[in-house]
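Protein data:
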Amino acid sequence: MDRRRMTAIGVLVAAAGLTAAVTLPSFAGEEPRRAAPAADGIAPEVLDALGRDLSLTRDQAIRRLKTERWAAGTVSRLRTELGAGYGGSWLGDDGTTLTVAVTDAAGAARVTAAGAVPKRVQRGVAELDAVKTRLDAAGADASPDIAGWYVDVASNSVVVVARPGAEATGRRFAAAGGTTGPVRVRTADETPRPLFDVRGGDAFLINNAGRCSVGFSVVGGFVTAGHCGQPGDRTTGGNRVAQGTFAASSFPGDDWAVVETNGDWTPQGVVNDFNGGTVPVNGSTEAPVGASICRSGSTTGTRCGVVQAKNATVNYPEGTVTGLTRTDVCAEPGDSGGAWLSGDQAQGVTSGGSGDCTRGGVTFFQPVNEILQRNNLTLVTAGGQPAPAEPPSGGDQTAPPAATPPAEPPAGDTECTGQVSRTGRIAAGRAQVQPDGRFFRVAGGAQEACVVAPDGAQVVLELQRFTGGAFRTVARAATADGTATLTADTPAGAYRYRVVGLSGAGEYTVAFSAR
């Protein structure tokens, strides 16, 4: 790789004054959080959320995610091999045992050979799906006392969820669907509703009125919940800058939408972790029932749980929505449309739910692969789309302009210099704060910085200002040919630089100065 020389110039501040500022954190008693290293390619934010919500140690979370990756590949292969004899699959409560239901002895032998545990059942999953499809056809006439219905592979049945005292209504609904044999009725105090007013990755406004959130970036835009808008609706970002237009939408029936963004917005393959960082998206392999899963939303942040069922139908007041995934993750209004991840794999966008994050609840998401396939979309991943997407965050009345590329520097030199210089090690999915995990103060004016990425790696350099009780990104630049420069005109305040790894790993150098 041809390295470039980048030098921050025109600096008028005394070196001693700036150095003292960066080594003495004193801003409102705030001690910036040091970025934890990624473990086996898993973002530390994911491990933290799994530890909190599933009571797992860091090592247990890593082992569980590894098992779930193996299970996802194994299930995909067995489903094809077993054909009509496949009865569904699920992970046990501890996330270590994969059970695969089969209808014959030959299938059980295949499952055992694959390292999973077979379970003989009467009905294949195709038969259960057919029963549920008949219930879907009768869904338009479903009583409000019916919260929804779904295929429960562990019990080899279709479950109708009725509110307490409405069991008879549930049985009548099952009979109206033309079947009662494989259907069982359970009661639960669930009242699903679409979760409007949300930001999963980043907030956006619809026709300058309602607010929803970005689910996942795709080439040319992003996907989100269908109840957020209809084709032709205009969107603006959380910063009130014109963003794009709803190109497609489906709700009820489904709950997905596609927004095409304008040239001012660049989709990136990450999800906001609502803790000052991002989590990379590296694919969309579907997680099995029983797998751990996490979602991000602006009301309650990042929350985790497990997948309970797939192909669930929810009876919203606006109409039924089919093909959703049911989870025990909590959510609240303001979390709708947000991103669901299993490890670093995209799973879906928040549709709706019942309950809250104080008492617990149930939340449903629209699977992302269906959105991608039906609309011929390409998911943007962290490694495949190095350019950063989101504009400067709101909350700073004098946010600086976005970084601009520098003039072509002389070739063949790897130096990156400035008033303060630091080195560190970075890897894909990891973020590191400089200088030394702390921050510094400036009196206002121009700030200049440069970064040299490790050989073969790509990184993003972010300038963040402490405002509104948190550090917010005000300018950023991504490396090209291994280097990047960032220049911004900023007000007085406390700042820090953040280096985010997109691909590759190794030692980087960052240098910066301020006036």
About this structure: The chain is about 15% helix and 40% strand. Helices lie at 15-23, 44-54, 58-82, 105-113, 125-138, 167-176, 368-374.
